[in-house]
Amino acid sequence: MNHPNTTPDKPLPLAGIRVIDMATVIAAPYCATLLGEFGADVLKVEHPDGGDALRRFGTPSQRGDTLTWLSEGRNKRSITLDLRHPEGVAVFKQMVAKTDVVCENFRTGTLEKWGLGWEVLKKINPGLIMLRVTGYGQTGPYKDRPGFARVAHAVGGIAYLAGMPKGTPVTPGSTTLGDYMTGLYGCLGVLLALRHKERTGEGQYVDAALYESVFRCTEELAPAYGMFGIVRERAGSSHNDFAVPHGHFSTKDGKWVAISCATDLLFARLAQAMGRPELATEDTYGEQKTRLAHRHDVNEIVRDWCGALTREEVLERCYATDTPAGPLNNIADIFGDRQFHARRNLVAMDAPDTGEQIIVPAPVPRLSETPASIRSLGPKLGEHTDEILRELLDLDETQIAHLHANGVV
Amino acid sequence: MTGVRVIDVGNFLAGPYAASVMGEFGADVIKVEHPIGGDPMRRFGTATERPDATLAWLSESRNKRSVTIDLLQPDGVALFLKLVAKSDVLIENFRPGTMESWGLSWDVLHAANPKLVMLRVTGYGQTGPYRRRHAFAHIAQAFGGLNYLAGFPGETPVLPGTVPLGDYIASLFGAIGALVALRHAEATGVGQIIDVGIYEAIFRVLEEIAASYGLHGKIREREGSGSFVACPHGHFRTKNDKWIAIACTTDKMFERLSVAMGRPELSAPDQYGPQRKRLAARDHINKLVTEWVASLDRTEVLDKCLAEEVPVGKVNSIADIFVDEQFAARGNLARVPAEELGEVVVPGVIPRLSATPGRITNLGPKLGNATTDVLHELLGVHADEIQRLRQHKVI
Prior knowledge:
The structure holds two protein chains of two kinds. By secondary structure, chain A is an alpha/beta fold. Chain A has helices at residues 27-37, 67-72, 86-97, 110-113, 118-124, 149-156, 177-200, 210-216, 221-228, 264-273, 288-293, 295-307, 311-320, 331-335, 338-342, 385-393, 397-405, and strands spanning 18-21, 41-46, 76-80, 101-104, 129-134, 204-209, 246-250, 256-260, 325-327, 346-350, 357-361, 366-367. The radius of gyration of chain A is 25 Å and the shape is elongated. Classes of the chains: A alpha/beta, B alpha/beta. Chains A and B meet through helix 2, helix 6, helix 7, strand 6 and helix 8 of A and helix 2, helix 6, helix 7, strand 6 and helix 8 of B.
């Protein structure tokens, strides 16, 4: 474990950018998390009663929130605000006037109902950038439907592609994958919009839909159907439309490896690793088209070879000949892995109040001159309410006490 | 990003997709390829009538111009450095040490252009004991912990979708890094390197699996089509042998589902109203939902769920997607002409910006389609020199 959380000699590239994260769970908030890792001041605006649902999603922490919240709420400051209360709306508008980016993911029409739609906010702050994340986007016939990442995986086309052939489609590894992917696309959109704003003063909104983030990452699924009517299907543990072998193979010790030979050269190396170079000649399986035509035979040869060795033995032999192969790591494997340690991908942080040690993934991407950092874990609900009202809006103690007394914050 | 020049010297998708996104928003993306054959992505995927272009290549090399340069020749390296001097971002995904072996280390590139932003995407990153290992998307996904999690408990781990998710996700992280670095370079004149390992991009998006293992030693396992934290939450087969996804993340959502099923009593507080009771009786709940869904056609299930605002969706195949009205209304299927091939249907541009939307101007270019233009107009190379470079197969 490491504590590489701040590099005092290096600047945070987004210092001076202020972000309001009024969203919930992962998709839009993860955009704010990314901006915060690079130094933006992220103000998490939450309902006074319970706050972000992410505080209750996943494994409980000693403090009463959850591990996901502690990890993904990193670097944020929490202010409670009841946006159904007119005074809450007024405070929010004052905050927006002093903010560069707002991230939200309410159902379409919700902000408008509170008098906080794009047209209103744009008047308050013409340079504002607003990330709007929903299941289906701000437009189109399904725009009002509720959407979660699971539904987005299904609608966007990857759930159909995960699972055994003709079997039940499975979760593509993680139920929140589409949320993170949308956070990434949203962050890209915000950074592009920020660039435009800093040149022209003009703000704009980014309209992100969970299902679209998933669909965008489906390679040639759409062109192949459009041109040839090919419907890609689930392929279990080996996807052999273009390359053989390309998939997961079990080893003698009940573990799994991934092997992928995208080119003939790489298959020749695998044949070498298997001690059977004769498999990679022109009249055997040396050419991709021959391997594609005899995919079952080739997969069986690789399966038999892997099944006779332990995972470590298979990988050692593959690495020795530069064959693309790797373990299917579970989280225990990851904690013991040298590469994760060398790259400091696991960061140990002490949770505030309880001193509980929480291990979270380090920021990605890694920048050489202006690296991202984790300066704090997810805050307590309303931990920074008074501080933000005082510093950002210049409210005095009486005004702040009034807001508390009226249940606005 | 008009006015920003990006050199994409990578192969396949991890890294080059970051260049595609920048190109969609107006950057001038120059794809530098080997004169013989170019990017192997041109041959990966479904073949077309054009020998230099698969469908995957056409779609993901959108908006790029192709320039051929042989980086194994000193003249090629010199030419490349001239190009670097006139560019803002360089994207590469060779195994660490490869660019260096051609005389194109960071020090050399940085000297040619101190403001340069260099995005390096590889399976394992630029550092650490495995940095030189080969990795494609699925291997890095497996290494990063995603592939272990796809499939039914105790059964074969399957691919989390037969698409190279790791390449896309690593590219998205890379593009974010490049935009942050570009902003810094423009403000301060200081360029830098963005170092992305595909495996760590994947690991970063796996929620709390590290935290819960660290604290409680809990190893997350495959959860089939369901979820360990919510119920019902999964994929169900309809009477007409199609699939739908239902996600009752909260009690309120289950209450709505129980109404949609015509069995509101199921969500009473002493029945299965609270999530913990549903999780405790997961098999029973899943059986009830499975039976209900199996008694109806997909359209019927969807109509009943949508009437109650239950989070539900079709498990779409690409054929479903082509006739879906939301995809149509949002313009998610763009029809773009490709040279000699006519229209190709490709995913439209996201993210969707209101004032400065992205666009697709062309699909994957022919090999070297802009070599002369770029050499002549951008680098001021004379016609006879271009001729000489061609003769020597430098370009």
